Amino acid sequence: MDGDTILTIGDLARRTGLTVKAIRFYSDSGLVPPIGRSPGGYRLYDLGSLARLELVRTLRELGIDLPTVRRVLEREVSMSEVAAAHAEAVDVQIRILRLRRAVLRAVAERGSDPQEMKKMHKLAKLSAEERRRLIREFVDEAFGGLDANPDFVAMMRSAMPELPDDPTAEQVDAWVELAELVQDADFRASVRRMAEQQAADRAYGDTSGLHHELTEATIAAVGQAIEAGIDPASPEAVPIVDGLAVRYAQTFGRTGDDEEELRRWLLTRMEAGGDPRAERYWQLLAVINGWPVSPTLAPVFSWFTRALRATGPTTPSSPR
């Protein structure tokens, strides 16, 4: 077949698999103009027209819009530029579809009603920056204007929810719960009280960071007590609480406090940080980000708080 081959619309349709109507549309729009007309007025094309039509069909099948197809044909943009831009667009579409699939699976597992599904989809489709902004606003409100523990605040600011491109239903569920949690006014007030307690401790002289060693000591001592079946209100709990009170006094620079003052401060501190939703916050972040989920410490600090109330001196927060 040589370069003088003349083709009709019917010939193009047979060679490309496109309909005559589609070819006529591309011809009318100027994307594949005829090279002339037959004596009977029928449009005529050549092999260059066939190649041009094949390119139009390929670009359209890849989802490229007609104005961009025209720019490619007129060589205003290169194929590589168009391919790169549309590959990025396809990546975005894939991420959206994966997210929708995860939301639908989460809805199926929850047995959600239409209203809850709508809310879940709205929260799940937030961009990564919108998710981070939601957390930053929460942290700013909870810790803003206070000289709280700087290491803890830095940890709060750095731990952002990074929902993967192909999240599981569990990760979507966790993000929706976290988003609802940080917007809950009661939880925000609870974290604010914890921040105020941290600020009060720093004003008293606490500069001891995140207190990992103290936490481990509390877990060990109280964990043994729980395992041994010691009731926090029993006489057997007194030496455990006394020993931990000494450790807390040493860590926070309160060795000069008398026993009643120390116990009152310690109980206030435990109550300020005892909201189980604070632990849930970190568990949800772990699920979203694919981190190991730490075992709950709620039983440990619940036991310790109850023991402080039962064995310590009378305080305004624990009447006896």
TrEMBL record:
Annotated GO MF terms: DNA binding; DNA-binding transcription factor activity
Keyword S-adenosyl-L-methionine tagged: no
Top-rank lineage group of the source organism: Bacteria
Alphabetized SUPFAM superfamilies for the sequence: Putative DNA-binding domain
Keyword Transport: no
Annotated CDD domains: HTH_MerR-like
Domain HTH merR-type: residue ranges: 6-75
Keywords from the named record: DNA-binding
InterPro entries reported in the protein's UniProt record: DNA-bd_dom_put_sf, MerR-type_HTH_dom, MerR_fam
PANTHER family: HTH MERR-TYPE DOMAIN-CONTAINING PROTEIN, REDOX-CYCLING DRUG-SENSING TRANSCRIPTIONAL ACTIVATOR SOXR
Protein known as: MerR family transcriptional regulator
